[in-house]
Design brief:
Strand content: 15-25%
Shape: globular
Helix content: 25-40%
CATH topology of the largest domain: Rossmann fold
Number of domains: 3
Largest sheet: 5 strands, antiparallel
Organism: Oxalobacter paraformigenes
Protein name: Sigma-54 factor interaction domain-containing protein
Distance between the termini: 28 Å
GO biological process, one term: regulation of DNA-templated transcription
Number of helices: 18
InterPro entries: AAA+_ATPase, AAA_lid_NorR, HTH_Fis, P-loop_NTPase, PAS, PAS-like_dom_sf, PAS_4, Sigma_54_int
Oligomer: single chain
Keywords: ATP-binding, DNA-binding, Nucleotide-binding, Transcription, Transcription regulation
Length: about 425
C-alpha cells in the first residue's frame, strides 16, 4: 500500500488515526486526530511519545508498554491501554496499532487507531483513584467491561484500596448512570434492623410505622445497589438476598405481597468470601451469584508507580488553594513505603503533611511515615527497584532521573533497555 493510499485510508476513518515510521516519527494524521490532539499545533515530524505523553524518550524506556516496540518484535497488531495528554487533560485511551509491510514482508510503518475510554475518563475525573501502572490499566479494562452490562460484580481487595470508587465508576459508565447509586454498609447495620433497612417496612406492621418505610432496595430503583463488606451480611438475610438476585422479587417485613426490584447489584469484600463459604458463614449459592464477574482491586504496594499521580491529585483536593509541590526526596519516601492501609493511609500522610507545610513545597520532614522493620514488607532498595519506583516521577526527564540515581544518562539508558528486555516475555523477543 502506497503512502497516498494510506493517507486516504486515514482521512476516511472517524476515529483519530496516526501513521508513523519505525523510529516513532509521525508522518501523517487524519482530521479526527487533529481535533483530538491540538488543531493549533502540527504533529507531523514529531515523535508519538512526545505528542501523546510529553516524553523525551519512547514509552518502553519510560516504564510503559510500547505498542510499536511490541509490534516490531511480533510483526503483528498490538493493543494497549495508555494515558494521553490532550487539550482536555489526561485521558485513558485504547491504542490499536497495525504494522504495514512491504512485499518482502518487512515493516515499513505503523497505523495507530486511538479510542478514548469513556469509563477510564469517568473514573479519574471525580475520584482520587488514578494510575497508569499495568495493574491499574488491567483494572480499568475490567471496569469498562463490567459497565457495559448488568452483570453482578464482586470487588475484592484490601481495605482502603478504593473499592467503592471503582463501584461508582462502573455505575457511572453503565446505562443506569442517571439513576441512584445506593451504598449498603453491611458491617454497620445490626442484624435486627438489617431486613427493614434493606427491604423497608410495611405500614402497620410490628414496628411503629404508620405509613410504611422505604428500604434501600426501593431507593436504588432503576440504579445500582452497592453492598459494601458483603462478607458481614447476616446469615438470616442471605436467602432473601439470593431470592432478590434470582427472581428480582422481595417482600417487605410485615407483608405477604411480593415487590419487584429493577436494580443492579455490585458487592465488595476485603475478606475471602470463598473461605467463608467453607466455614458456613456465607451461603455457597449466594457467593456464586454475587461472584459472576470478580474484579480484584490491587493494593497500593502493588502499583507504587501510580503514587506520583495519586499524590498530585490528593494534594490538590486537600489544599486546593495552596499550589503545593512535593520535593524529590519526599516523593521517594512516599514511593518506598509498603502502605498496609493503602490509598486511605497515603491520604492521611498527605493531610498531615499539608498541615505541617508552611511554604509551597512538601518536604520529607513533613511526612510522618513510620519506620518499617518488618522484613516481609520492606521494599527492596536495589538499583533496579529504585529505578522502577522513580520512573513514574521522572518519566520523560532522563537527565533528572539519572541525577537522582547517581548515574550518567548513558548508563541510565543502558539500564532502562536491560530492564525492558527482562520485563518482556521471552516469546516476544527477537532471536
Amino acid at each position: 500500500m502506497s503512502f497516498t493510499e494510506l493517507s486516504s485510508f486515514l482521512q476516511a476513518q472517524p476515529e483519530p488515526h496516526i501513521l508513523f515510521d519505525t523510529e516513532y516519527r509521525i508522518i501523517a494524521v487524519n482530521q479526527a486526530f487533529r481535533k483530538y490532539c491540538n488543531p493549533q499545533v502540527s504533529a507531523i515530524g514529531r515523535t508519538c511519545y512526545e505528542v501523546s505523553h510529553n516524553y523525551d524518550m519512547p514509552c518502553d524506556c519510560s516504564g510503559e508498554t510500547c505498542p510499536l516496540a511490541k509490534s516490531r518484535r511480533s510483526g503483528k497488531p498490538e493493543r494497549v491501554l495508555h494515558m494521553h495528554h490532550t487539550p482536555n487533560g489526561e485521558e485513558y485511551v485504547s491504542i490499536e496499532l497495525t504494522p504495514i509491510k512491504n512485499p518482502a514482508g518487512e515493516i515499513t510503518c505503523f497505523v495507530e487507531k486511538i479510542e478514548p475510554v469513556k469509563m477510564a475518563k469517568g473514573l479519574t475525573e471525580r475520584n482520587s483513584l488514578k494510575g497508569q501502572s499495568a495493574s491499574f490499566r488491567h483494572l480499568m479494562n475490567l471496569v469498562e467491561k463490567a459497565a457495559s452490562s448488568d452483570i453482578n460484580v464482586l470487588l475484592c481487595g484490601e481495605s482502603g484500596t478504593g473499592k467503592e470508587l471503582v463501584a461508582q465508576a462502573i455505575h457511572r459508565g453503565s446505562k443506569r448512570a442517571a439513576r441512584p447509586f445506593i451504598v449498603v454498609d453491611c458491617s454497620g447495620i445490626s442484624e435486627n434492623h438489617f431486613e427493614s433497612e434493606l427491604f423497608g417496612q410495611e405500614k402497620g406492621s410490628l414496628s411503629r410505622t404508620a405509613s410504611g418505610k422505604k428500604g434501600l432496595v426501593d431507593a436504588a430503583d432503576g440504579g445500582t445497589l452497592f453492598l459494601d463488606e458483603v462478607s458481614d451480611l447476616p446469615v438470616s438475610i442471605q436467602p432473601k438476598l439470593l431470592r432478590l438476585l434470582e427472581t428480582g422479587a422481595y417482600r417487605r417485613p410485615g407483608s405477604t405481597d411480593p415487590r419487584r426490584a429493577d436494580i443492579r447489584i455490585i458487592s465488595a469484600s476485603s475478606h475471602d468470601l470463598h473461605k467463608r463459604t467453607q466455614t458456613g458463614l456465607f451461603r455457597t449459592d449466594l457467593y456464586y451469584r454475587l461472584n459472576t464477574f470478580p474484579v480484584h482491586v490491587p493494593a497500593l504496594r502493588d502499583r507504587l508507580e501510580d503514587i506520583p499521580l495519586l499524590v498530585s491529585t490528593l494534594v490538590e483536593k486537600i489544599a486546593p488553594d495552596r499550589n503545593l509541590s512535593v520535593s524529590d526526596e519526599a516523593m521517594y519516601l512516599l514511593q518506598t513505603y509498603p502502605y498496609p492501609g493503602n490509598v486511605r493511609e497515603l491520604r492521611n500522610f498527605l493531610e498531615r503533611a499539608c498541615l505541617l507545610c508552611e511554604g509551597h513545597e512538601i518536604r520529607s520532614e513533613h511526612l510522618s511515615i513510620p519506620a518499617n522493620d518488618d522484613p516481609e514488607t520492606t521494599l527492596p532498595l536495589s538499583f533496579e527497584a529504585r529505578l522502577k519506583q522513580l520512573l513514574p516521577t521522572f518519566r520523560g526527564n532522563r537527565k533528572t532521573l539519572a541525577k537522582m540515581l547517581g548515574v550518567s544518562e548513558r548508563t541510565l539508558y543502558r539500564r532502562l533497555s536491560g530492564l525492558q528486555e527482562r520485563q518482556e516475555p521471552k516469546s516476544d523477543r527477537t532471536h
